[in-house]
Amino acid sequence: MMDPQSSLNSLQLCDSEATEAADGSIDLPVPQKILISNISCDSFKISWDMDSRGSERITHYFIDLNKTENKSSNKFKHKDVPTKLVAKAVPLPMTVRGHWFLSPRTEYTVSVQTAGKQPDGEYAVSQWSEVIELCTADYSTVHLNQLLQKAEAIAGRMLPFTVFYRNQEKDYFQQASPSYRSRDAQCHRMLPAVKDNSGSHGSPISGKLEGVFFSCNTEFNTGKPPQDSPYGPFRFQIKADVLFNQNTNVYFGDFYCMYTSYHYVILVLAPEGSDGDAFCKGRLPALDGSDNRFLICTEEDDGSLSFRHAQDVILEVVYTEPVDLSSGTVAQISGQQLMSQSTVNAKKDPSCKICNISVGR
Question: What does this protein do (predicted)?
């Protein structure tokens, strides 16, 4: 028998010839009570019970692994012949791993059959087990640190800035705005809203973290915010030190592109001890607010704070607490709405070598 760890290298796509069963003359036990454990963004462990009768004839396990969304149709499958992962029979539990067929935060169905390889190279197989559903996990901090390192490599030099800004449609900033769930019209506040599913598929903040999105990038020639925006012609501006100061923790959330030459970095600004801060601790890499490659706040000799942002990435900053509109100003911008730059539910380019890591999108 092989060592369990060696099974990691035994999983491979089975070719069409190997998937066809022999005459079934060997009675092989059917896997029962499938148990899935240790689920990560690109692996899981699987074990099961089975009758000992005929178990000595088992040489391989066939694992049918499918994305739930593709249950009804899969153009890569021959009719009635499932695409299997093939592993030599090893002690259970067995680890199923592979970035090329497992994606983060994705639902799969799994079923198993035992197989015995015959002298002619064909397989005798058991019946399929029950079908089990699982969902792979978010990126771990290890994976996020890999993304962070890739983002740091292209961040570029730092440029000064003085304000954070947020663009929206005019109605968003008006007192009565019942159509915007992220606005509290009565209290005149912008409220945290759940982040959409744009960016890396495995980012822990997508669909979970609540916050208010801001930008801080400036135009190289003016040092001021650009006059164009994909999110609306009205802009709320707030002094940088209101949101970012020495009581604010900074976390790295994501790094991605959308089939374009420019890349986005998502940072989270969370006041110390806030609910957002509690969410980020242990989930996201923490950055030194005064010494990182993306967004820094430094104290000058006179006690004032100065701010700089990375030049070569587009920063999306998530502030985790409500923001009073009275703490800033709202004015119409003179530029256009560049809808092609909107990141709302935007999908990450899975082929980009700059912003992808080995565990998928």
Answer: May play a role in the development of the central system.
